[in-house]
């Protein structure tokens, strides 16, 4: 028996559901950045301009919302890696992405800590795999042209980025400290004279 095509009303309902989900994730990302992983779900629903019932229909638990929010941020970061790979040379793309990764890590430190405590961290592990793949592609491009030493691994780079976030928080004025520490990391990571201005 042939499958019935969805009616126009059904298509409209699905589109509304997708939009609501996107609005919830966007609001969750903003509220969690401001208030941490313990952010009020009611505030997230209010920012998303949806009812609490709609939020729970999409994300039946806080854990589900945290995992989806983190994964959504990771996908955005990986998309950015693809964009940089197509528009900038190897070392410039790698450094630009690392700076964005540091900003991402700073905004999600509380979120990551909360995810690690969950009984199931499958989505978190999947997100980590995606980040490693994106970083590996950019690192390999930079290494191919001799801008980064061949013995440096993607895990080395990711640990450096995380270390910058931790150190910047300890120093105070996290954003400014992170920029300064990233300058030091870049000077040690990339062969001098290989960085070009990032295209606008």
TrEMBL record:
Ribosomal protein among keywords: no
Residues passing through the membrane, by range: none
Origin species: Mycobacterium colombiense
HTH tetR-type domain sequence ranges: 18-77
Highest rank taxon of the organism: Bacteria
Molecular functions (GO terms): DNA-binding transcription factor activity; transcription cis-regulatory region binding
Pfam families tied to this protein: TetR_C_43, TetR_N
Key words, A-Z: DNA-binding, Transcription, Transcription regulation
InterPro entries, A to Z: Homeodomain-like_sf, HTH-type_TetR-like_transc_reg, HTH_TetR, Tet_transcr_reg_TetR-rel_C_sf, TetR_SbtR-like_C
Residue ranges of the annotated DNA-binding region, renumbered to this chain: 40-59
Protein name: HTH tetR-type domain-containing protein
Disordered as annotated region, ranges: 1-20
